[in-house]
Every structure is written in C-alpha cells, then in structure tokens.
Amino acid sequence: MNNTTPISMTSRGYYTLSKVDAFGNSRTEGCPSNIVCNVVTYEGAYYSLILSSMFGTLYAEIGASSTERTRSDTALGAPDTGVSGGASATGRSGNEVDNGNGTSTITLTRVMSFSLGEKVGTFSEVGVRTSSSLSGTFIAGQLIKDEFGDPTTVTVLSDEQLTVTYTLEWTVPNTSNLIGTGTVVDASSNSYPYEIWAQPYFADYTGTSTSPRYFRTSAGALALRGASGTSPRPDTPSDDGWTFSKDSVGLVTAVSDNKVYSPLDFSAVDIVFMGIHTFYTVATSSDSDIVDTTKVLGASSNASFAACYIKFGNPISKTDQQSFSIQVEMKVQV
Predict the structure, then answer these.
(1) Is the pLDDT confidence value at 286 over 50?
(2) Are residues 290 and 182 in the same domain?
(3) Do 194 and 139 fall within a single domain?
C-alpha cells in the first residue's frame, strides 16, 4: 500500500545575541539587539523530526561569511573554529500550542554561551548544530542582521562573553490524517478497500511525553486487530522497522519492512485494523488502543507507537491455506 498525500511537518527559527563583561554586566556595543529569523536546513529538520529528537542538545557556532544560508546548506559559510557549550530544550509542557487545524507548534529555546574571551573578533553569521565539534549535523543558521533586516556584524572583545539564544519551532500532527486510500485484491479476486491514517506525532499526543511515533527503526512489529477487538496474531517484538530515503528538498520516504506470513502462521476471519510498529499489547474488545471514530491509536506514553493506522472496509479472512504480506510506504515533508 502506498500513501497518496505527504505529511507536512514545518519548521522555523530565530535567534538573539547578547554580550556581558567579566563582571556580568551587559554590553550592547557592537551587538545587534533585534530578533533574527534563520533557516532550518533540510538535514536539520530530518535529524530533529525523524532520526533523533527535537529536544536534544545543540551547540552554537559563529562565522564570517556574507552569504545567506539556504535549506540545502550543511554548514555556515565560513565557520569559526569551535562551538559554544551545549544546551538542551525543555519538554512539551508549556511549549506546545494547538493550532486548531490538526497540528501543534512546539517552541523550544536554548541559551548557549561561549566562554569569556573564547571568541574575539568580528562575526557575521550564527548557527546551531548537534555536536561539540563542527562535525555534527547543521540544524539551522543565518547571517546576522540589523533592525532593517540587512546583513551586519557582531564584534566581541577579549573581555566579553557572547551568548546565543536560539529558538526553533516545529509544527507536527496532533490528530490522525487520512493519507491514503485504495483497494487490494486477494488470489480469489476478493476486493478489500482500505484507508491509511497517519498518527499524531507523539505517542502521548494529549500529554507531555516526548516519545515520537515518526519513526522508530527497531523493535517493531506488525499488529493485526479483528473487528471485535481481538488479536488474530499477537505482536512479536523485532519483527519490523522502517528504512528511510530523503531527497534534496526535504521529502522523506519511510518504507516498512515487507512482512510476510506463511499459510500456517495464523488464521483469522475478520482482520480489520493494522499498524506497522507496535500497538499496545491488548487482545480484548474492552481495550482502547484503537479508537475507530478518531482513527487514533492510544493516548498514553506506553500506548501505540504505530506511525499509521490501516482500516479495511471489508474484513479480510485468512485461512491456513493462504499466505499474507503487508508493506507500507509513508512520505513526510520536513
């Protein structure tokens, strides 16, 4: 099954610069005071939203280029040697706003300082990356601008300490989204229409957990559910995962493992719901890991980590004479 509509997860950012002297007194001379918007790179968005965590430790860097950063960049134009001390972002609590359109925006700020006298000179660009060296993933950056939006510089003296306050905003799904429809036909020419629903970004989409559903690459499973809530084939850890490819403009394609079951693996008469990765381990109709009215899987941090919910319009029957396979492809625009 292939999806039809990419899931959009947008990002933006901005930063401010400040300086203090050896006694902690603010020094505004030669330091722009306006908030400057920056570019979140494709690599940075991919790293933060898919491969790692948007809450992780970042490090500031500065440089001397006069060239604007673009989303395709992997570094500042002329980075200076060394980065600031690292800073992590706080969690979702107090930082997340429901946009009322099926998405939430999470605003995460990090305050990163260079040591007193560590950076001396005149600098024209600033950015953040994921490593305490210049080898980490370049998340975001931009030229330093004045209050009119024109390129300018910051001058740092030997008795001054430069601090970079960097804010990144991530917009992610907080409800399910219909991303695909179609029909599969079995060997007996029986047709089964289906819908694929992408899940909220966070497993605990109503709370504060920072565990994402998009995507987990290991310890996965294919979960099947019958119309009655029963589990025709219980989850098995380490069955499935996702592999990724990314193009030059931030379109990520995630493909699940092709899970194949032999005729004798299981039999079922009413397979209706499926998920790649794991549902919370349940097998009775009283459990609430599948909510068909909302197409959302679970509402707690230990609930479903499935990135998608698949529902068949006609229940699928599988006898012990038939094999069964499933593979799902999802596209995410970062």
Answers:
(1) no
(2) yes
(3) no
Report DSSP letters for 144-174, one per residue: -B-TTS-B--EEE-TTEEEEEEEEEEEEEE-
CB 179 within 8 A of CB 195: no
| Spatial CA neighbour of 206 closest among 290, 69, 303, 87 | 303
d(CA 160, CA 152): 19
Please state, in angstroms and rounded to a whole number, the distance separating the CA atoms of residues 250 and 236. 33
36-40, 131-135, 298-302, range with the lowest pLDDT: 298-302
In a domain, 146, yes or no: yes
Alpha helix segments (H runs only) across the chain: 42-46
Residues 120 and 217 in one domain: no
How many distinct structural domains can be found in the chain?
Answer: 2
Residues 206 and 126 in one domain: no
Q: Give the range among 21-35, 109-123, 207-221, 271-285 with minimum mean pLDDT.
A: 271-285
